[in-house]
Amino acid sequence: MATTIQVKLAERSYPIHIGKGLSFASTLDGQPGTRILIVSDSHVDALHGQAVCAQLEGRGMTCLRAVVPAGEETKSLKWVEYLYAQAASAGLDRNAILVALGGGMVGDLAGFVAATYLRGVRFVQIPTSLLALVDSSVGGKTGVNLPQGKNLVGAFYQPIEVDADLDLLKTLPQREYVSGLAEVVKYGIIWDASFFHLLEKHQDGLLARDPVLLESVVARCCEIKAEVVAMDEREIGPRAILNFGHTLGHALEKAGGYGRWLHGEAVAMGMHFAAHLSVKIEGFAPADAARVSALLTALRLPLRPEGEAVPAWPVLRGAMQSDKKTLARRPRFVLSRKLGAAVVGCEVEDSLLEEVWNVCCK
Prior knowledge:
This protein has about 350 residues and is an alpha/beta fold. Helix content is about 45%, strand content about 20%.
């Protein structure tokens, strides 16, 4: 049985359907003839593109597929332009639908194209990675990277529906799956201490992709994300708590050339760093910082870059300069006062940032 969660944003409200074997894009029922462009990457399209397209065509829609290379490097203006051309060739008009079939990279890229092509066409998210299911497919953040930093070009643009089919996770490589668990842990740190405890209790089930556990965990993550987005759709204030671990995480991704670490791996290292920084700045209990690090380790996520992959601190500090959350060239952090409660907009002296890096991450 599917679980449905509503993202409540007045006229931009939409459902998130979570379950197994979902019928995709139920919002489109009764709209035969609608032109649909499915955007996917080369890995996901080979696995699921034809089946999803056939399902939509079986309901009377005209479906075409546009495929981009897999990998974070594709989230760029070059591939935005490519997808604009594909949309034009497919004859998309303002009644058309753009479907993002893939992980976070595809959702961000396709969502930005949907937000800007013809000044906005409808789009549906069909996430195929755990990270996309619990985070990037919900909330309307779309965008691409620049050489100067991650997600510097983008728009807030909500989908009309999110179809989170857990069956699609069966083809997800274990490293990609584990990467998504970082965002799952984040929700326990910033919002729900009892959820954090549940994750501690069911580490083995999470790693084994227990279907009953996974459905409830994904649903809780989406509930939290929906609540936060409903409070602050455009990240003017409280929504920024969702960036816990991301200031250092994004800097690590940039320093690694957007290829050395998966997003969730970089965020895990960033959360380890932020938890220990929280001890110094916000009075976060050292025992709870240790629990954060222990849970990340139990879920096989990295706490620090290893060996030759360790960037020099000046390189990382420079990468933080271009982070979206930086003001007057000073990065701002999301920190935690206690499990389940986060604080946004924290400025930290450079000397303390480097000290914590050297102690817990280097």
